[in-house]
Every structure is written in structure tokens, then in C-alpha cells.
Amino acid sequence: MPTGRRRSAVREPEYRYLMDRMREARVESGMTQSEVAAALNRPLSFVSKCELGERRIDPVDLDKLAELYDKPLDYFLPKRQARGKPRTRRK
């Protein structure tokens, strides 16, 4: 019987991809979670929980991570498949 609760986005493959890419980017940059936390002026738990999916990442924070790791924002996002024609605005 459905409970009406939404499935956690962290369990979605796209979000799992984001979490994996955050960790990969940090490791590739040679930084520890402690170093990232200090650079962002955040507690270590912030970085750890984001990478583990225990905390959702805000787009502004993701942008800061991308800059810190010298990666474009789209590095963290799965590639989208084309889905037919683009929508047009109604007049």
C-alpha cells in the first residue's frame, strides 16, 4: 500500500552519480575531506555527509566544489539523453 512518501533522491542513479563524482574529484585533486572542509569554511561532517549521501548538496555548494576541484559543473552531472523535440513556449 503506497504511503504517499517520495522516494529519496539519494537513491536515484543520477544522485548516486553526483556523489561518486564529488568523491572522485576530491581524490583527483589530492585533497582530503578535512582540507576541503577548511577551504569551504565548513565542518568536516559537511563534506563527509555530502559524499555519503546523508546530506543533499546545494547547487551553490556544488559550484564552490567545482571551482575548488577545477572542474566544470557538468563534470558532476550525468549526461542526458535527447528526449525528442525541445519544448516551445505557448504564446
Protein architecture, described:
The chain has helices at 13-29, 33-40, 44-52, 59-69. The chain is mainly alpha-helical and 91 residues long. The chain has a single domain (10-76), classed as 434 Repressor (Amino-terminal Domain), CATH 1.10.260.40. Helix 2 crosses helix 3 (44-52). The termini are far apart. The relative contact order is 0.16.
Features:
91 residues, mainly alpha, 49% helix
Low-confidence stretches: none
CATH architecture: Orthogonal Bundle
In DSSP terms (H or I, runs of 4 or more residues), the helix count works out at: 4
Query: Would you identify the CATH H-level superfamily?
Result: lambda repressor-like DNA-binding domains
Largest sheet: none
Backbone shape: globular
CATH fold assignment: 434 Repressor (Amino-terminal Domain)
* Structure class: mainly alpha
Could you say how many structural domains there are in total? 1
Helical content band: 40-55%
How much of the sequence is in beta strands? under 5%
CATH class wording: Mainly Alpha
Number of strands: 0
Rg value: 16 Å
Mean pLDDT: 85
How far from one another are the termini?
42 Å
Give the H and E element order. Answer: HHHH
